[in-house]
């Protein structure tokens, strides 16, 4: 809906600009001067800002990330019918918004996190178009996964704070909170996407009402 | 007599750049792929920025030159 409105505004602006290109003499009059300012300054910048904002929002969507062929196995890993698969369990139980699943876990919840996530996306495009793409199962994170991204939601949650395993050793929780003990690579929640073994697992199909 | 034609040419060029930029943006908004995001920001943004800057350039410098030319005409008449 918003995209359609922006496209309509862009087409309207282009139409007005075409009038100005075909009849530049209208700028001899005050009304024409105002039109020229609106069409050649205000409207294009407004369209650019609105469009950019729309593109930024759209780039957060799961479908946007999965539109790249190489990401298909990662999309498939969200449908694994096994609660030990971290990404699938979060996606299927809506622990993360299903329509922004990739972005929710792979953004950085620090200042400029969104900006850094977009820069990471640009790097993906660079590798996709100008370098040799790795196999999906060989894709690595740019940097070790920071517990901060998990704690953004789980910190303070009863299941996290009072979980039996988390409290079995009094040093565990402080180490997790200080990012000294990784949630996903310390042998605890280490089955995340595991795209290399997807052909051996059962997939869950969402029943649409 | 040439001066209005001069600024009109610049306005037309600015308008063409803006139209091209807006067209690129409209196409990219219809095409939901990561590469569309790059083309939107890179090519569309660049064309629009070029059109807007060219418009501002023509406003500032053509008008200044016109005023200078008018002042020179007056000096010659004196």
**What general outline of chain A do the C-alpha atoms trace?**
elongated
| Helix share, percent of chain A | 40-55%
Report the C-alpha radius of gyration of chain A, rounded.
24 Å
Instruction: Give me the secondary-structure category of chain A.
Output: mainly alpha
Could you tell me the strand content of chain A as a percent range? under 5%
Rounded to an integer in angstroms, the radius of gyration calculated over CA atoms of chain B is 18 Å
Report how far the terminal alpha carbons of chain B are from each other. Answer: 21 Å
Whole-number mean pLDDT of chain A: 91
**C-alpha geometry of chain B:** rod-shaped
**Helix count of chain B, per DSSP?**
2
Give the CA-CA distance, first to last residue of chain A. Answer: 24 Å
Instruction: Point out poorly predicted stretches of chain B.
Output: none
Task: Give the SSE order of chain A as H and E letters.
Answer: HHHHHHHHHHH
| SS-derived structural category of chain B | mainly alpha
Structure description:
- The complex is a heterodimer of chains A (209) and B (78).
- Chain A contains eleven helices and no strands.
- Chain A is mainly α and 209 residues long.
- Chain A folds into two domains: 2-58; 62-145 and 184-200, no CATH class.
- Chain A has helices spanning 2-22, 30-58, 62-65, 72-77, 86-92, 101-106, 113-130, 147-154, 158-161, 164-168, 172-177.
- Chain B is mainly α and 78 residues long.
- Chain B has one domain.
- The two termini of chain B are 21 Å apart.
- The A-B interface holds A 3, 6-7, 10-11, 13-14, 17-18, 20-21, 24-25, 27-28, 36, 39-41, 44-45, 47-48, 51-52, 54-55, 58-59, 63-64, 67-68, 121-122, 124-125, 129 and B 4, 7-9, 11-12, 14-16, 18-19, 21-23, 25-26, 28-30, 32-38, 40-41, 44-45, 48, 51-52, 55-56.
């Amino acid at each position: 809906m918003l995209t359609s409105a922006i496209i309509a505004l862009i087409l309207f602006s282009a139409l007005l600009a075409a009038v100005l290109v075909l009849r530049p003499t209208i700028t001899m009059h005050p009304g024409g001067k105002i039109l020229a300012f609106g069409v050649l300054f205000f409207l294009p910048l407004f369209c650019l800002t609105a469009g950019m904002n729309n593109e930024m929002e759209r780039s957060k969507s799961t479908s946007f990330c999965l539109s790249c062929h190489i990401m298909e196995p990662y999309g498939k890993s969200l449908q694994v019918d096994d609660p030990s698969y971290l990404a699938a369990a979060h996606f299927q139980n809506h622990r993360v918004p299903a329509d922004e699943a990739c972005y929710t876990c792979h953004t950085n919840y620090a200042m400029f996190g969104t900006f850094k996530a977009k820069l990471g996306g640009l790097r993906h495009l660079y590798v996709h178009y100008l370098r040799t793409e790795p196999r999906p199962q060989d894709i690595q994170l740019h940097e070790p996964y920071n517990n901060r991204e998990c704690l953004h939601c789980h910190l303070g949650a009863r299941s996290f704070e009072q979980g039996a395993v988390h409290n079995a050793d009094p040093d565990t929780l402080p180490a997790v909170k200080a990012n000294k003990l990784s949630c996903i690579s310390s042998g605890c929640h280490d089955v995340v996407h595991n795209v290399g073994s997807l052909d051996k697992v059962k997939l869950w199909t969402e029943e649409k009402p | 007599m040439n001066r209005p034609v001069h600024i009109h040419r610049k306005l037309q060029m600015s308008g063409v750049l803006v139209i091209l930029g807006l067209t690129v943006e409209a196409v990219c908004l219809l095409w939901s792929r990561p590469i569309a995001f790059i083309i939107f920001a890179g090519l569309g943004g660049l064309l629009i920025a070029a059109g807007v800057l060219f418009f501002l350039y023509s406003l500032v410098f053509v008008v200044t030159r016109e005023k200078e030319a008018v002042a020179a005409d007056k000096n010659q008449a004196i």
